[in-house]
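Lecture notes, unit on protein representations.

Consider one protein chain, 191 amino acids long.
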Amino acid sequence: TMSTLYIFDFDDTLAMTDSHVRVIRPSGQVDRLDSREFAKYRYSPGDELDFSEFTRASGTLIDNTVIEMQGAIDRYGIENVFIVTARAEGQPVSEFLQSFPIRVPEVVATAGSAGKAPWLSRKLLMYDYDQVIVYEDCRKNIKMLKDVVEAFNEEMSADIKYSAVCILPDGGQELIESKIRKLIRSILLSL
């Protein structure tokens, strides 16, 4: 049977959250950055980062993505669907989502985006997946997770398909498909 691993990011993917990181500059100036702004933030010497707001989760659900997550749970089972967040704590995310009438899969907190790659590597080693589908608002993470799957395929002579859906700032979706390109290439080669 085909087994598919679904990975959903949380902030700006499943929910538009109002949590901010506070950057306290040496001058005493405080900048509040939302998760998109923080993804682009570059550290300057003397900056202090305050993540205390990220210990709570509140905001509004992004319905399209939540519907896709519920569909993935229906089709592939809740044990193959994960919310993988760069936050340091998963519990506020679980509690926020459980306040809605939806099924909430396991929440994995990786304390920084870079932690998503080793988590995925371990998953691929432990379970026999044919396909990985990622929902993310950050193209850098989409590419990083794609690199993990491609490296795994190379090392293990596997053929796990990877596809990703990029969640846009307005909550819309953009399909980033590697399968479509492969299909077109194979059709062109057979002509």
